[in-house]
Amino acid sequence: MVTIMKSRFLSVVVISCTLLLTAANSLLSAQPPANSHRVFKVGVLASLTGSGNSLGQDTVAALEIAADQLDAEAKANHGGYRFHLIVRDTQQDPAKALAAIQDLDRRGVQIIIGPQTSSEVAMIKPYADAHDILVISQGSTASSLSIPGDNIFRVCPNDIREAEAVVALMQHDGIHSIVPLWRNDAGNNGLHDSVKAAFENVGGTVTSGFQYQPTTTDFSAATATVASQIQSLLTAGADPNSVAIYSAAFDEIVGIFHSAAPNATLSSTRWYGSDGVALSAALTGDASAAAFAASAYYPNPTFGLDPALQNLWQPIANEIEARTGIAPDAFALSAYDGLFVVEQALRRVGNLKDFAAFKAAFVDAANAYTGITGSTALDAAGDRLNADFDFWAVRPVSGTFNWVRIGAYTNGAITLF
């Protein structure tokens, strides 16, 4: 009897130990190994050659820095999320942007940062919506793309907010009439429309102006038309100091200024610009165009950086400039924040298997995150809520021409430095 009882006891012990080991092994297999890393592909659509390459180069550098930091964090914590960046040069060409997102889709990419222009975003939007691809643009501003529920998100404010800023500066400067000169694409058309509406809303006069095609290289017709409309305003009794030119452009502003410089009317009228030119290396790199810009006043509003957060964004800005030779603006730095928001979203859902869950997690993460550019909270259409802007102008500095921050639009108020 004793022998039988001992045998049963040993059997129970063996079975219990076996069950415990099985349970322990099951628990371990359900969790990733302590040193595992999950790597996700992120497509980057940026203009690296041609017009807009300043923002494109800075965007790629910002994302590389962010990816390196997240990689180091994952390794230090023996787990986490890492990112493999797949960069495509779109040259601000919508057709190239569409070809790029199609290629990235075939490579299994479901997260895109960029492109930087609204015309590119408008081109890729139907494809992104149809193929469960999350697009995070750091430069698109067209309010026509502010559509709730789609797969397009923008970590920068839209053109309605930029228009509020530039019109506030025009009012501050005593401008009552503007002649617009703008590029025919989604983003710059949006800026023109928003500035026109905002300026007329405060009682200002907006002439028909001149819209030029993106392929334009000879701007003589454009500048002649603008000069003629200014003369008409002056003939009708407008104070010359109350008339200005509003230009919504990209790097082709260099050619515009070459064409405008010999015209006495255009060279004696104040010019106002847009975010597409702010901090452009192409403009400061052309001595004659830069000299015209400096003499024409020409403040360019761009998504602003909070001075209170300078201890956060300045080191990243310095590192970007060390890599590219180009001082980054808030648009490029917002791409840096965008990758961290993606990482936060992945922490919530773990993977991209359920795209709807990841998309919802991205919105929640953006609304909760504060990065080097401040709060990344989004409005109902997925555009950034932050509406502060800096004004940059070309000025002579130590025998050359550089971009200088000359003012800010914060909480609805203009401050000039």
Structure description:
It contains 14 helices and 16 strands. With 417 residues, the protein is α/β, with parallel strands linked by helices. It has 2 domains: 38-156 and 307-386, Rossmann fold (3-Layer(aba) Sandwich); 160-303 and 390-416, Response regulator (Rossmann fold), CATH 3.40.50.2300. The strands form 4 sheets. The protein has a 5-stranded parallel beta sheet. Strands 6, 7, 8, 9 and 10 form a 5-stranded parallel beta sheet that branches. The termini are far apart.
Biggest sheet: strands, sense, closure? 5 strands, parallel
Number of domains: 2
Mean of residue pLDDT?
91
Number of strands: 16
Task: Determine the CATH superfamily of the largest domain.
Answer: Response regulator
* Distance N to C terminus: 99 Å
Shape assignment: elongated
Low-confidence stretches: 1-36
Q: Reading side by side through the largest sheet, how are the strands ordered?
A: 2-1-3-4-5
How large, in whole angstroms, is the Cα Rg?
Answer: 27 Å
The count of helical stretches stands at 14
The helix/strand order is: HEHEHEHEEHEHEEHEHHEHHEHHHEEEEE
At CATH's second level, what is the architecture of the largest domain? 3-Layer(aba) Sandwich
Key traits:
417 residues; alpha/beta; Rossmann fold; five-stranded parallel beta sheet
Mind sketching the topology for me?
Layout: H1 2-29, E1 38-46, H2 53-76, E2 81-89, H3 94-106, E3 111-113, H4 118-130, E4 134-137, E5 152-154, H5 159-172, E6 177-183, H6 186-201, E7 205-206, E8 210-212, H7 220-235, E9 243-248, H8 253-260, H9 264-267, E10 270-272, H10 281-284, H11 287-295, E11 300-303, H12 310-324, H13 330-349, H14 355-368, E12 370-371, E13 374-375, E14 389-397, E15 400-410, E16 413-416
Parallel strand pairs: 1-2, 1-3, 3-4, 4-5, 6-7, 6-8, 6-9, 9-10
Antiparallel strand pairs: 11-14, 12-13, 14-15, 15-16
Helix pairs in contact: 2-12, 2-13, 3-4, 5-6, 8-11, 13-14
